[in-house]
Amino acid sequence: MKDFAGRVAVITGAGSGIGRALADRAAALGMKLVLADVDPDALERATDELLAGGSEVLSMVCDVRKCSHVEELADAAIIRFHGVHLVFNNAGVTSAGLVWEHSEADWEWVLGVNLWGAIHGVRIFTPLMLDCAKREAGYEGHIVNTAAMTGLFGAPALGPETVSRHAVVALSETLYHDLRLVDAPIGASVLCPDQVPTAIAQSQRHRPEEARRHHAPPPSQPAIQALLAADAAAGGMSAAAVADFTFEAIRDGAFYIVPQPQGLDAVAARAQAIVNVAPPADARAHLTDALHAQLKGQ
Questions:
Q1: 97: phi then psi, degrees, rounded to nearest 5
Q2: In the chain, where the domains are located
Q3: Which end of the chain is more exposed for a tag (fewer CB within 10 A), N or C?
Q4: Is the domain 8-262 a CATH 3.40.50.1820 member?
Q5: Is 28:49 a contact under the CB 8 Å cutoff?
Q6: Which carries the bigger pLDDT value, residue 215 or residue 78?
Q7: Rounded CA separation 241/18 (Å)
Q8: Cα–Cα distance, 187 to 179 (Å, whole number)
Q9: Are 189 and 142 in contact (CB under 8 A)?
Q10: Mode of pairing for the β-strands spanning 186-191 and 86-89
Q11: Against a cut of 0.85, is the pTM above it?
Q12: How far apart are CA 169 and CA 118, in angstroms?
């Protein structure tokens, strides 16, 4: 996809973080915006600010875990703008802690947003975009699923997120191959940022009531969450820089979008461990000692 001006971008998780930065960049490129988020206040702020800047914006509160919400988002986009060209399945949450200590509700919530949100986006928007391509001469489309570097290697204390991100990478790879099977004028990419200072560490604040655990978390979870949040806050790349990098990668037709390539050393170490039939490499070695000391002190 080379041209963005006048075309329609759908962005989930658009109220803050990388999603909001993608919306800002799309607006700067002259795109029409369809914004979705589960946080109505953040979504309203983003919408008001983008409208004030002169963008055409449709926004909807949307829980991407729910197929019906994503279907309503797609229907609204077609009714308002008569087409969709660029889809960012970007909504994401996290839950830290030892993998066996996460509750069923934790797993269902994280997989529901991170994985099922992307599945719903792919399943609902791809046929819609293929239909748009039949009606629009010179149609160009692109789908970007947000995973993370934790989708390319293993990481301690982030079980549900790591599982969901690996699955999103696999979903995106399959989407890429399947679009080529039908000669679709639609590209596919998976976005794999590393540490970026966003509010994802506080995503528990917007956890729906039906997805909440009904007991106190294990002692390890708050301690691990605090350490990982501090590490993310020290991230060396802003959400705006990630968004800029992403749009350039889309223009270049890249599949793996890796804004912080230093993380690829850990990807290579994982691949080498697999080839050597060795134990998995520690991709977060700089945190391991702190996590270990924290857990021993409890």
A1: 140, 170
A2: 8-262
A3: C
A4: no
A5: no
A6: 78
A7: 9
A8: 8
A9: yes
A10: unpaired
A11: yes
A12: 10
